[in-house]
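Shapes recur. One chain:

:::
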Amino acid sequence: MPMLFESELKLNRSSLHEQIVGMLRKMILEGRLLPGQHIDEKMLCEQFEISRTPLREALKVLNSEGLVDLLPNRGARVAGTSPHLVSECFDAVAGLERTAAELAAEKASSDDLETLRNIQEEMEEHYRTNNEVDYFTANDRAHALVVEFSGNSILVSMHARLMTKIRQARFAGLTVPNRWHESILEHREILDALMARDSARAGAAAMNHVMHTARLFKETHKLALSQ
């Protein structure tokens, strides 16, 4: 189990639960807790200086996000999945986000689009300050909102389930040289297309953005591209 940095051990007791969730999420996304690794609750409790109750509540949240598997009578482990399944999930998300963006270009309100514009500005600020974790959080929200603004509850439900399977792969993609900058530009293109109410362009931009990350993942894992 990796040790925590000193700054990570200073918990604000008024928001203990949220901070534990945030720190464990960061450790998983950054690869300091690896897929399939058993989570040593006793060690974490000692490092955080907390009881097991808030830790286990945090693990439940991470389980709902697809980052942690809860094992009956055996604690918890970092979620892991096969590269082949992750690849298939990327393909599915790409098609789903294309359809959602096409619908959002037609259905999103002016306030909806303003919300997306604000999130784009937030992502770009995190990029400028090299804050990967907060960027990724805002990025997640942008993807989810585009799907939400499609007005299709089935797409929203399917998207949420699939995104849990590719969360770690998406975060890892930011470490590929130039990918973070490219991601910013791709999100700008999606936003511009939505603001222009250009359904076809928005859908193509959303799909291409997801498939760009998917290609990087497939190349990393030496999977055959099936474009």
The radius of gyration is 18 Å. The longest helix spans residues 83-107. The first strand starts at residue 68 and ends at 71. Strands lie at 68-71, 75-78.
